[in-house]
Input
Amino acid sequence: MRSLTFLMCLCILATSALASSGGHGGGGGNRGGSGLLEMGQPVERAIVSTTKVTPQELALSREKLYAQAILQLLANPGVADLGRCTGNEGWFSAPCIPPVSEAAAKKQLDDIAASPATVKKRYALLIANQDYRAPIPALETPKKDAEEIARVLQSEYGYEVTTLKDASKRDIVKGLVKLAGTASAADSVVVLYAGHGYLVAKTGLGYWIPTDATPTAAEGWISNSDITKLLAAVPARQLILISDSCYSGSLTKEKNLADLSHVKRDALLKNRTVTAMSSGGNEPVSDEGKDGHSIFAWSLINTLKSGNTGAIGTSVWRKVRAEVTKAYPQQPQYGALPSAGHIEGGDYLFFSAKP
Output
């Protein structure tokens, strides 16, 4: 297992180097700096081998960069939260949460339970946020990760894939809202996010960081609360969120999933399933790995390639976790999202598109 010396986490690691050198985040993979980074060294391999970076130092660098946004969130934890849309036209004119009444949510679940336990169509929305604006450092692998995951999902599993690269808050919300309008009760959906993330320790609340976000305005972030609300609006029988970002484990903590590998497929598909898989727990995660992918994405890609007879989400997660923890001090997590409509007794299934 590598030490934190070699981690380029998907949260903020290069802050002190940028601040002390006066350097600016650039495109490509090179970043000037001192302290944590060597001049001309790719961000993907971005930690100087002679510099030990402790978890405390990582936390301080993040807090320093995001200090203003953190204060805003402590004063008002809902400052990043979206309002409810007032009508269909509002979904696409401004970022907002589609309205889902209790009656509509119940009908959605009833429709799934009453329909045949099969999957009609498969959709995937992949969000690859890589090129951030300084002082938030750029990442190296999200776009390549998304491209290969898209290829595997299309060729091995028959998904219709939409990829959003360097997505703003508006782009991400619109993408999820559009997905809610496309998917039906007979469908299966994958949502993947690769990019920066943050967890406010004092509140335990987590956030995605879109590429148009700044470290001084928390309203540009996307809260875990809004993520689950947006997922709840997607009326699919099967839905899995895969998040490759720092501290994304907070998304998986609602409910543990039992081992259902012995349960027949029809039973797993009977009711609505909403699960979340994260690249780590409440810790930094690596942007480096193998073959130009993050270690989590590399492990996920290879696990999906080998699971073409039909794999249950829990089994996929266990294989991914085993590969990740061989080399890196991060712990991929998996759990259910009752707040987004998960019904106990189900798990996500990856069906092969091959005969």
